[in-house]
Amino acid sequence: MAKKLNQQPALHKVIMVGSGGVGKSALTLQFMYDEFVEDYEPTKADSYRKKVVLDGEEVQIDILDTAGQEDYAAIRDNYFRSGEGFLCVFSITEDDSFQATQEFREQILRVKNDENIPFLLVGNKSDLDEKRKVTLAEANSRAQQWNVPYVETSAKTRENVDKVFYDLMREIRSRKMEDNKTNNGRGRDKSKRKKLKCVIL
Amino acid sequence: MASARRKMEFESPDVEKDFPGLYASESGRKSNESDFSDDAHERPSKKDLLIGKRKDKKDSKKDRGYAALEGESSPEEDPETKSPSKSKKSKSFKFPSKKEKREKSREKDSKEKDKEIEKDKKKEKEGKVKLKLKERKKSKHGEECTDVTDELPVFGVPLALAVERSRCHDGVDIPIVIRDCIDYVQENGLNMEAIYKLSGIKSKVQHLRRLYNQREVVQLADFEPPVVTSLLKQFFRELPEPVLTNDLIARFEEAAAIKEVGARETELKMLVDQLPTCNRHILAWLMVHLDCITDHEKYNKMNAQNLAIILSPVLQMSHRLITAILCHCKSLFPEVKLTRYIPPLSAGSPSLPDTVFGITDELRKQESLLSQIHQEMNAGYVSKRREEQLWEVQRLITQLKRKLRTVQRAQEAVQNQRSLDEDRCSNKMYDDEFHIDTTLQKARLGSEDETITSVVESRQIMPPNDTDRIVAETQLSIEIPSEPMDNVEANSSQVIEDVVDSTEIEEQHNYVDASGKTENTIVQSVAETEEELQGLLQEETVLQLEHRELLSLQADLQGRLQGERAEIERLRQELAAARTKYSFSGEDDSSEGSSSPSHSEGSDGDDPEVAARIAELQKENLILQQNKANLVRRIVEAREACLHLRVQLSLLQLSQESKQL
Hints:
The complex is a heterodimer of chains A (201) and B (661). Chain A is built from six helices and six strands. Chain A has helices at residues 2-7, 24-33, 73-82, 95-112, 136-146, 161-200; strands at residues 10-18, 45-54, 57-66, 85-91, 119-124, 150-152. In chain A, helix 4 (95-112) links the parallel strand 4 and strand 5. Chain A starts with a helix and ends with a helix. Chain B has 661 residues and is an all-alpha fold. Chain B has 27 helices and no strands. In chain B, 32% of the residues are buried. The model of chain B is unreliable at 1-146, 431-516 and 585-604 (pLDDT under 50). Chain A binds chain B through residues 13, 45-49, 62, 64, 74-75, 78-79, 81-82, 110-111, 113, 194-195, 198, 201, and chain B through 19-22, 88, 91-92, 95, 373-374, 377-378, 382, 387, 390-392, 394-395, 397-398, 401. Chain A: It is found in: Cell membrane. Chain A: This is small monomeric GTPase. Chain A: InterPro entries: P-loop_NTPase (IPR027417), Small_GTP-bd (IPR005225), Small_GTPase (IPR001806), Small_GTPase_Ras-type (IPR020849). Chain A: Belongs to the small GTPase superfamily. Ras family.
């Protein structure tokens, strides 16, 4: 089992969340294919995989781009469950989308039941600074309250696009390492317990 | 079932711990689910009492219980006896009761009693070892999977549920297990003697049943025909309600008893139409399939009567009813065509389809699969592997969507080119005329005078600064034609080349079109093997790429043609202007027309020197023409080579892109 893990590059599962039209798909496509898609087409759900080098180590990133619209909330849960890290995106030009991050955060915490789940608050469309509605201070204070980093990006200019994905992957990786340490014992316990059950009965 | 339920109770707290609150609503659903299937099991027994087919039913019931036990116990039973080390690894979820043990020992006894040849036994053992390996693998990375087998099985549930749980993703609403079995027998069993009569090795049948219950991808090809037919029979035997439904089955029997053939058929047809959709589908597929088997009676020795005898208890239909339905099969189910099921691609699949048809078809399948996964996850069936699959299918869908978009974009471009093409068609007519014109001119090179006119006419294509001079020297031009001739050759060769190219493009275009069409029909008659399909698809990509290259080439040439045509027009105007400028322009004009003979008469008599010169020039012209033809050929060849290289290049790029994806 361990050998298998060593052979295959680690896989980090990232989920994009946020209201409709804030640029989740744009960020994803910019990161994946270096392309910026101007025309807006609502996403239902899309998933991508990419091999990247994270601090000298080859890893795979799975990105799941979810629907911002409420209509697809039902299938969203299924995805949230399997996500290892979340990019919670809003548009700095739209206050509603910033308010909505609160709900997304709650939903994620509810599904994952983990306050420390790798999570980044992302303010997109930083190229449209003249239309800014959400101040840096506002966003920063919310990030502090959640104890997560806040980064402003522009899918159009590619500013900070790589940064948010790589930062999140680093968090996921360190999180996994921690889990391994603490969980290893627990994991063994689990299997032992199961075996014990069998033996007893 | 009892053990399964116990297990569930045992497991659920664990799951709850992992995802607290998550299943609050789902666990409710879960219990409903199991209640439902319990119900389903009870129902037939009630019905038995009513109908009085008790003995038959009892057997099948016993079978069911037996099967359920064996299916779960067999993989664990063997490691215990054969290698103690394995028993440590295999995680047993079950708590074998005494009753079960008795069952097991009975099973062993019966096995020993079986008068099987030693070889068969060996085979069985080998098979078991294989099965065990598979089983162990599963239990390693699919611990939670076993839960779904018990909670949401495919066997032994109402047909509609089985269809939903074991969905074919190509729109045919019969359980995948039945589809697979029919596909398998259609391919491998039609000519096998006593197909459906022979029973398969029970452990293998149970293994397959279990795999289907777990929604595993199953390779039936690894099994013998009797195993597969037994699996099919088992599915029908386990159905809580007969395929013909409790409500209608009696009326079916009555209909089958009608003596008059026509009336019998209409009555049966009417009843078939009353069946629930999924019952009608599965009945249709099964009967059409059985009909196929009787078509091969010569080889398999199975006629309708024989099949009826074997399947009568399985389908809970009388011999007469089965033979009647088989007899009217073609008119009862005229729309049913047995098509081989091609499951949705998995992440390991080498390449995505390339045609719009192929992609949309695949996309439909993947989306059907995705919605099934969501459904099952919402129903509480959550496992690591399911989640992986969810992401994987989603990824495939995203890839397919992206590819569809690019292919559609490419097709749009092609269509634009096609409309351009039509434009070009009219232009081509003009080209041809022009082409004939020049050749005519060459043919007319007989007399000195005509040489002059032809030179003048050809001069239209010459650079303008020369034209003036030449027009002015029309009479004297006899001395200088070698130089302009060269130019003319160059120009006309260009024209000819263009014409050649465009016809060539036309031909290749048609070829691509035709091959595209045949390709589609091939895709539709899915009977071809997948390899063949892959090859054809690849061929099609190549052709499409070639087509694209040719189109761009054509556009390029067209642009040039237009430029030249504009130039010609301009030169013509200039020539006309020059003609009006000079006094003899009128004479020249007439020489082009009907009055030319008189003109030539006059100049013919001039002197033999001129005639000799003309002959010389003609010879030279001939040589130049040959040279030109050679050059044109070489250009065409070079162009073709270029094209092929370009196609290969884009092919490579495509494959790289898909790899990156």
